Amino acid sequence: MTIEPVTDLGSGGALRLPRARVVPLSAPPASYTAAVERCLTGAGIVKSSARIYRISLTTWGWMLTGEPAPTGPARRGAKPPVFPITSIDDPALPEVLAELAAARADEMDADTVNRELSIARKAIGWWQRQGWIEGDPTIGIERRPAPPKALAENQIAALWRLDVALREKTQWKMLYESAARADEVLCLNVEDLYPQDKRGKITAKGGATEWIHWQSGTAQLLPRLIARRTRGPLFLTDRKAPAGTPTLDVCPGTGRGRLSYRRAEEIFEENTRLLANPLASPENIEALDGWTLHRLRHSALTHDAEDGTSTPMLLARSRHASVRSLERYARPGVDSVARHVAERDPAARRRT
Hints:
This protein has 352 residues and is mainly alpha-helical. 43% of the residues lie in helices and 7% in strands.
C-alpha cells in the first residue's frame, strides 16, 4: 500500500488526510473464472469445500455481468460468462446485482441464499486484498432471515416416505419420537435398550445416566435393525472398523464400527436436499443444503408445545434444566397457527 502525497488544504484551511491506495500484489487474472481459481487456492479453501465454492461463484458470475443465472435444465452444460475481474468495480453494478439477487432469493431457500452470499463476499474480500478490485458490489444485499428450525408436520411425513436404508429409517424415527440429541442416540449400544418398555439408557451431558422414550414407529423397526446382535453399537457403519478403533465402538459380532455423527449428519443432509428445496431442480441439488439432524429434536419438542404439552413434561422430554431453555420451542409454526385460528372460528363452529 502506498500513501499519496498531500497536494492542498481542505475547506476551512484544514489539512486533508493522505489517501491510501492499494498496490496490487500481482497482476489481475485475465478473467473472472481465473480469479475464482486463484481465490480457491490462495484463500486456503479446503478441497472438500472447493467444489461448492466454485458452483456458488460461477452462479455469481452470471449475476456480476447483469444476467440471471440459468436454472434447471438450462444450467446443465451452460458455460459461465467470460469477463475481466476488474469489471466488478462498475459503479452501476450494485443496483443491478441487488435486483438479480432478490429474484434468485425468491426461488431458493434462505440457507442456500445466505451461504452463496457469504462465499461471494469471502472471494470479493480476498480479491480486494490482492488489489485487483476496490469495491464490493454486494454491499447492499442483506442476508435472508433463516427459516424456523421446526419442520412442518407435512415435511416430517415426507421424510418418512423417503426410500432410505433401514439404519437411517430407524435412526431418524428414534430421533424424532424421543426428541433426543443425535450424539446421544448414536452412542447407544444394543445392551442399553429396553424394547419392551420402548426406552433406552443414555449418557447425557456431564456423564449423568438418563432415559429416552420412543413410540411404535421406532419399536417396529428396532428388531430388524438389531437382528441377532446382543452387544455393541446400535448404529453401525457399512464396513468393518479400521484397525485401532476403540473396542467399545466395534460390534463384536460383525466387526463393523459405530456410525459417526459426521457421517450420520452427512447422510441426512444429502437425503433431505430436495425436501428442503422443493422448487429446485435435481440438476442443481448438489449445490444446495438439506436439513440437519438437530431439526428432528427441535421439531418434536415444538410439535409437543403446539399440542399443549405441559411445561414439566417438556422439561422432562427435552431434559433441559431451565424453563428458559424451552422458549426456543414455544414458537408455533404456520400450520399450527392456522389450525388454532380455524378451531376458534365461531362461524365455522355454527356450520358444524
